[in-house]
Amino acid sequence: MRDRYVVSLMYISLLLVFGCGTTCAVTKAADTSYLNAKPKSLEWFRDARFGMFVHWGPVTLSGQEISWSRGGNRPEEPSADPYWGDLFNTQRSGTPVDEYDNFYKRFNPVKFNASEWVKIMKSAGMKYFVITTKHHDGFCMFNSQYTGYDIMNTPYGKDICKQLADACHKAGIKLGWYYSPPDWHNPDFYRKTNDRYISYFHNQIRELLSNYGKIDVMWFDGLHTTPEMLDSTTLYKMIRKLQPGILINNRLAPFAGDFDTPEQKIGNFSGQRPWESCITIGTQWSWKPNDQIKSLKECIYTLVQCAGGDGNLLLNIGPRPDGSIEPNQVVRLKEIGSWLKKRGASIYGTRGGPFLLGAMGTSTHKGNRIFIHILDEKCDELKLPVLAANIKRCTMLGGGSVSYTQGAEGVNIRVKEHSPDAIDTIVVLELDRPASDIKLTRVVKDALSTDKVVKASNTYNNEEAYSPDKAFDDNTSSRWATDGGVTSAWLEVDLGKVETFNQVKICEALGRVRDFELQCRNTTTEDWRVFHKGTTIGDELKLDVGSTSARYVRLNILKALDGPTIWEFQITRQ
Prior knowledge:
By secondary structure, the chain is α/β, with parallel strands linked by helices. The protein has ten helices and 26 strands.
């Protein structure tokens, strides 16, 4: 019996070693290749730096914001009921649904000319284009076989997306589709019949990626959606199969996508993760009569800071109801294009850094050259850290006079004459090695509080994106935020040693602070000393605080209407 038992064990062992059919096969790792585009596909995106975003649809007949001006329900918004049934009962004020949803019957953009739009893009120096094929209001700007609520059933009756796709392909402009997964018009979205909506949604994406040639970007806007609401995994696989080289943004849960999309603000530096700031040229996304558009200086500042942060700018234009683009917007775009014709070498095909200069400017690099963008026209002298390279030549792009010294303490650049346009003075450093070898460094003029140890009493949802260090990074696009309902909070910095300072600058978002004080101390065992008291802060508060010495400095917010939010808290010595 024992011998027979040993033989049995040997037989079982051999089966385990040499395999025993499908039941003993090694489990294959799940295929996740569909999650991300190949690195090669991202190269054009990183090089392009500048694109056009367009929000357009029948709502322009009212001059109001797209989708958000529609009254009625917004099914996916959070509610006391965590499940389907009552979520869509939440009502919102705005244009009555019956009125909003019938704008399309009068939408007739007879002046729309796709070739003219593309010509404007090219004159602006834009390299790619993204348009709203369907926003949250559910109206489709393309010919869809799955709805009658589309451009083909308007008085215009022609496929807008087809015309734009043809014009972009002909002109060599990369093409992207914006599509909103939420749909406030569709009766199945986020209801118990949501499976029908998933089928509708997937079929429309299939149309957009099958009927218009090569599509370079799929730009989703997911709001509060979840993977279950949209069957995101199936959709992702389909997208990658239909358009293998496509890039997908980060707004389709649960996937990170290929690039991030900070909205209405300049993104933070990221040398690894591609990003694109989507920002309006005016004050709303869709057309608004007599809208106040951004100045040329604002537009260039935004574009340059995006490139310096290693990101792109997707600048939004709102066409008029007749399909034409506002003349003042066209003028501004052409001005940007004229600037880029002279200085585009410092933007296109570059990578961000290595010097982050905060409000003073930024830098980009390519090959052996570093382009230092000085956006503060009052900045005549710039001190950079020690470079792990020798400067072979220092010039100014577009003309102007500059000198420099390089030594053991770093590099000192003196601008003798700023650029004639007074927007961006670009100093070019040519090195004896690749600029990518230079370590990323944040250069802050006179600030004592940057890159120091900081802490706060509260952080919004404990999210890194709103951590206290965001108030000390000399970047007015990032912020420290607190939880909703918080009415008092503090923000503190350790300067590392006792420092003497005389100025404090605080930039607040949302204007919620009503009572605050500035405190300081030299050691953690001392009591806090109050050296300034105030009420409101506002967009920018500059305080002369006399000669104050301390190691620890605290902004103590005693009263706020709701969770206080601070863009910047700077302690400086002038």
